[in-house]
């Protein structure tokens, strides 16, 4: 099954290439390996359908159209990410990944690092993911990423976090990562937060969304829920603004269908994908 918003039938014609990674090996709980299929299914179940005369329709994003060609490549394994993303970028395509555990993001960043161009990371997460050591697991993504030469964490931002250990905060500060905790999104306007982050980041930006950044009331289907999260609209509004920058690629990870309630989280991830795809320049 392909995502409902696919609007071109071959990789050649596509500007945006969606792919899934069926992996949960870096997650505390199993389940995120089922996310790519659950998100695709939710895109059909909640945002597309057929008329009585069997004519297919798809519900549009807010802007009314996905102008860019979007192609759903299907799923690849975690071990194939580096090569796949490198190939997509060399073909001037924007890769959009559905995880999988957050560890998948490190492999994408590794591929982008091999372009030898400085780039920034915009990282939405309930957690700081800065546990020390070369962990290559969901809790050490940013620590692992800090060792990539061309990814500049001092020109990057972590948004929406509210659960971290003392050493993670120390590591984040040492790397001069711009920290925007969840409560800041309630205190400041989205426009202000966006302009603050935009001033900080390079032109080349990768955006990673751990769906647990959203409050568990809206996104119960995650492995490690944390209360006092941001709202779907806050995330959507910010993510769309970032998508209008020169986005190298993006991902939505850590949807866990095994813990989801009535597909709430999968359907939210699908909606976000459509809104982001429609906003990418
Ligand atoms: Mn994470």
CATH superfamily heading:
Ureohydrolase domain
Structural domains: how many: 1
Number of strands: 10
Strand line-up across the major sheet: 4-1-5-10-9-6-7-8
The CATH class is identified as Alpha Beta
* Low-confidence region ranges: none
Overall pLDDT score: 95
| Rounded Rg | 17 Å
Number of helices: 9
Shape annotation: globular
- In what range is the share of β-strand residues? 15-25%
- Give the termini distance in whole angstroms: 26 Å
Bound molecules: manganese (II) ion
H/E element string?
A: EHEEEHEHEHEHEHHEHEH
Task: Please identify the structural class as seen in this structure.
Answer: alpha/beta
- Major beta-sheet overview: 8 strands, parallel
Q: What is the annotated CATH architecture?
A: 3-Layer(aba) Sandwich
Question: How does this model look, in words?
Answer:
The chain is of the alpha/beta class. It has a single domain (11-279), classed as 3-Layer(aba) Sandwich (Arginase, Chain A). It has nine helices and ten strands. The protein has helices at 35-47, 81-90, 103-113, 141-145, 166-174, 182-187, 190-200, 232-243, 264-279, and strands spanning 16-21, 48-50, 56-58, 70-76, 94-98, 120-124, 157-159, 178-180, 205-210, 247-253. Strands 4-1-5-10-9-6-7-8 form an eight-stranded parallel beta sheet, with helices on both faces. A two-stranded antiparallel sheet has the order 2-3. Helix 1 packs across helix 9, helix 2 packs across helix 3 and helix 8 (232-243) packs parallel to helix 9. The radius of gyration is 17 Å and the shape is globular. The model has no long low-confidence stretch (mean pLDDT 95). Bound molecules: manganese (II) ion. Manganese (II) ion (MN) is lined by residues 102, 125, 127, 129, 138, 210.
């Amino acid at each position: 099954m392909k995502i409902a918003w696919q609007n071109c039938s071959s990789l050649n014609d596509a500007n945006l290439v969606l792919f899934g990674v069926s992996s949960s090996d870096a997650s505390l709980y199993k389940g995120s390996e089922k996310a790519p299929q659950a998100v695709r299914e939710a895109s059909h179940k909640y945002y597309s359908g057929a008329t009585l005369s069997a004519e297919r329709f798809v519900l549009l994003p807010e802007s009314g159209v996905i102008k860019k060609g979007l192609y759903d490549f299907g799923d690849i394994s975690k071990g194939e990410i580096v090569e796949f993303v490198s190939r997509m970028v060399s073909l001037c395509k924007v890769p959009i990944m559905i995880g999988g555990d957050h560890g998948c993001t490190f492999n994408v960043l590794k591929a982008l690092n091999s372009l030898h161009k400085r780039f920034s990371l915009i990282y939405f997460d309930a957690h700081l993911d800065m546990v020390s050591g070369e962990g290559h697991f969901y809790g050490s993504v940013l620590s692992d990423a800090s060792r990539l030469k061309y990814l500049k964490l001092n020109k990057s931002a972590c948004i929406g976090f509210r659960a971290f250990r003392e050493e993670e905060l120390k590591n984040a500060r040492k790397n001069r990562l711009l920290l925007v905790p969840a409560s800041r999104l309630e205190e400041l306007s989205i426009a202000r937060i966006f302009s603050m982050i935009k001033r900080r980041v390079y032109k080349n930006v990768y955006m990673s969304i751990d769906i647990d950044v959203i409050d568990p009331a809206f996104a119960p289907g995650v492995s490690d829920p944390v209360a006092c999260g941001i709202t779907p609209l806050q995330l959507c509004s910010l993510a769309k603004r970032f998508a209008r920058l020169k986005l190298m690629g993006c991902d939505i990870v850590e949807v866990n269908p095994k813990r989801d309630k009535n597909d709430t989280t999968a359907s939210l991830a699908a909606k976000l994908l459509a809104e982001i795809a429609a906003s990418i320049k």
